[in-house]
Amino acid sequence: MSIKVVLPTALARHTDGQKAFTSDAKNLPGLIAEFGEKFPALAENVKDENGKLRKFINVYVNDEDIRFLGGDGLEFADGDEIMLIPSIAGGLL
Amino acid sequence: MSESSCTVYELKCPECKKGFGNVPLSACPDCLAPLEVQYDLDSVRGRFTKESVAAGPANIWRYKELLPIPEGHQPDLPVGFTPLVKADRLGKRIGATNLYVKNDAVCFPTLSFKDRVVAVALANAQHFGFDVVGCSSTGNLANSVAAQSTRLGLRACILVPSDLEPAKILNTQVYGAKLVRIEGNYDHVNRLCTLIADEYKWGFVNVNLRPYYAEGSKTVGYEIAEQLGWRLPDNIVCPMAGGSLIRKIKKAFAELVALGIVEDKPVKFFGAQATGCSPISHSVKNGWDDIEPQRPNTIARSLAIGNPADGPAASKMIQSTGGYAEDVSDVEIVSGIQELAETEGIFTETAGGVTTAVTAKLYADGRIGKDELTVSVITGNGLKTTDPLVGKFAEERAVKPRLAEFDAFLRESDASLITGVAEEEVELVGGTK
Ligand SMILES: [Zn+2]
């Protein structure tokens, strides 16, 4: 089983320019852990102090926000496309 | 892409505090936090005064010292400075004695508050050298980008949810903008635009130009303060879609206080949403500092953003001011539209129905005191969303052009009007006029 991971340009700085790659992570925590092995710089960048994905990053599984699908509890299926996108939220100033 | 030499303002990361100068960029390249425009207020001090504002044009450019406008940009479109209306008739109906309506239903040129943000965004788009500008929109933003880009000689490509109100689609296409209908809701459209902005060299007003765009909302706050005689209200009731406007009104007030233009005082902020899409009001009611995304289902499509970008920040801000957020049903929204039109002669779109109905509810529930100075922010014109009102008014029979026929008709349909005429006659006969 494998999934496709798609990254925005801003994050591809930490993957030697790769904007897409395959992974065999089974869920989101697994994927983040895998970042740590494959792309330490990326892992450093997308995680907050608790080791969770930063709140400014939205995760889509195929076309759906992962929060509608069970979030961390969602088991990825073979062929899923996982997309990380910075949320275009306003900040805290 | 040229970089502005302006030092009065620059993009700043609210998380890691890095500054980025002035570039078309929405998120911090390091921590991905959304960037915001920060001003060096000390360098504005002395240049932004009550007198300098009063000497400016009767539109948002009177506040240009506090807007992120590139040096040398000559503002052309007279946008904003909309009426602040003392709403005594509406107030009487809902139990308010000191209620104002900020009426952006008449904001030139496309009749919504989005004209403000687009004016600021496109000034920057031009400055950064974009040939094509774009946006994702629930309608009003599309109308405004289409109109103003034409005026500035920029081409526009606009993406909207496919089920948008027909008038809003037409009001975009008429300016010659390329309109692409996307199968999905606003959140789907927005995600696609993020990807397009990442791929194409376009200036997306609500993606890579977003920090500048959002600052345009502050002008609603400046105008309210100025129109109240340079003082702040007790309460603001503001519709929330992405949650940006309500925060920017607060930022405007804070800047005026920091510059010594208005006296500091606590202002409570109240957010208004449709129950069918109420992630921010849901968050406030639960005392959360985050939001849970929703799948929108409401007639208030301009507020139908299930995953609001500024939602968490708006929720936190509202709670920190001691305000509240409320939401209303589609039936209440239509009543709100009618109530504002019948009492104040302001025809607002569904979002204004939301705000009016929420305002009434806040008074009824005692969350706003009867005599407090309250401003209800109306953001768009009803002519664009007439669909929810279709069938709301009886279609009466046509009357023959004869006085007797007309008289008979009035007696059967609304006899109270005839009493008025009779009294007028008596007064004239008695020679009292
Ligand atoms: Zn940062």
From TrEMBL, chain A:
Pfam families found in the cross-reference section: ThiS
Domain of life: Bacteria
Cross-referenced InterPro entries: Beta-grasp_dom_sf, Mopterin_synth/thiamin_S_b, Sulfur_Carrier/Prot_Modifier, ThiS/MoaD-like
Name assigned to this protein: MoaD/ThiS family protein
Automatic annotation (TrEMBL), chain B:
GO molecular function annotation: threonine synthase activity
Enzyme class per UniProt: lyase
Keywords from the UniProt entry: Lyase, Pyridoxal phosphate
Domain (Tryptophan synthase beta chain-like PALP) ranges: 78-380
Known cofactor(s): pyridoxal 5'-phosphate
InterPro entries documented for this protein: Ser/Thr_Dehydratase, Thr_synthase-like, TrpB-like_PALP, TrpB-like_PALP_sf
UniProt name for this protein: Threonine synthase
Organism: Granulicella cerasi
